[in-house]
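Interim report to the steering committee. The following record documents the input for NlpC/P60 family protein (166 residues).
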Amino acid sequence: MKKFSALVIGLAMLFIFQAGSVFADSKMDGVIKDLIGTPYVYTGTTTKGFDCSGFTMYVFKKLGVDIPHASRSQAGLGKKIAKGDLIPGDLVFFNTTGNGISHVGIYVGDGKFAHASSSKGVTISGLSESYYAKRYVTARRVMSPQTFEKYADDPSDEPGDNDSDE
């Protein structure tokens, strides 16, 4: 069963990250793709396991942007963005507990976002999926489009290439 699950996840990722997608071939895409399937670990901030804000913090750090490790804190950063104006790299926030912002992910384009799910680990989900659509709160642009272009697309500019967190 594990082999079948891995095959299904692999095929899903191939579909999501196909060459024609909005997010394909960027550095951010590569960082996220490498993390798909990483397990969920409460307060996790490394490739051994992530919680939702640990995942976003890790990805942004790989792109040269430091953000705090708490979804509520991350929700106060940058510029508020309307759902219809999302671009890859924007943070999307959800109320999954009934007590305000409690979950965060990274918009990757085509109505999808990457996040660390407590049940699936790092995965890609759709903003239109009923669970997330009902719980969506807001989005924030933490990186300017220029910063995104500088760090997300140019492999020679990757900060921390020699760093290891394992």
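The CA atoms of residues 62 and 100 lie 28 Å apart. The committee is asked to note this result when reviewing the revised timeline.
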